[in-house]
Give the backbone structure.
Amino acid sequence: MRRLFIGLALLCSAQLSLALSPYLHGAKLPAAELSAQLSQVESKLKAEGFTVLGKHLPKGLEGQGTLVVSDPQTLQAIRGLGTGSGIVAAGIRVGVSKDGTVSYMNPDYWHRAYLRGQFAGTEAAVKSLQQRLLKALGEGAGYGGDVPQNDLANYRYMFGMERFDAPNTELAKHASFEDAVKAVQANLTRGVGDTHRVYEVVMPTEKMAVFGVSMDSASDGEGWWVNKIGADRPAALPYEVFIVDNKVYALYARYRIALAWPALGMGQFMGIINAPEAIRSTLVRVATPG
């Protein structure tokens, strides 16, 4: 019986060790204005070869911001995948809070989810990315819940909810890739649906692109629902809209929110029951020709 208990304990320990958290803590910054803290983090990232794509200061979530950066190795790995949906993984999100807390998306977690069956082809680039983020930002303790790593490629919050490639990810279809990009760019520049562009990565040869979208509406923007489920993970935002060939997509929120908040209780999820369709409605407007 003692051997059985020991075996079960070892099995549980092994399973736990294979679980991944969506975010990693960085070294805490000294007290300062948020703008100064973001500048400090930006300098650290640039020193490790990252390119800053944009900055997100979400409405309704005062005192926190996100820097989105890109990494040449990661972008090259995404180019080589041969499937356009991988472009959604191009932006690397780093969160900063006014109390000096620094956090960043765990590439091993997010890229397993976003690249799915093709993750193995980018694993070396992801490991390199993770090491350089650790060097730039420090520490690396995980938080935000956990998901077994083998579940991430086919992740969904619960039975009946969407996965990465659910049909309702598609927002709009255009005559060409170029038309799709122009439509999204124009709509974000005009602030359609009370949105604005945080960043963009466009790969015209591969006919794929991704845009970080800030949803700023006081009534149905990101502020209201994030405050209900936990505003302690700024590296969860911004939301992505991506283009593959002539179609515009956004991961449906019952997948994208659950992936970013995997420890979310069902009661909390029910408290934002209107968020998935509100988000999709906003992003359809961003994706549709004016």
In short: The first helix runs from residue 2 to 17. Residues 1 and 271 are 45 Å apart (CA to CA). The chain has one domain: 21-145+153-287.
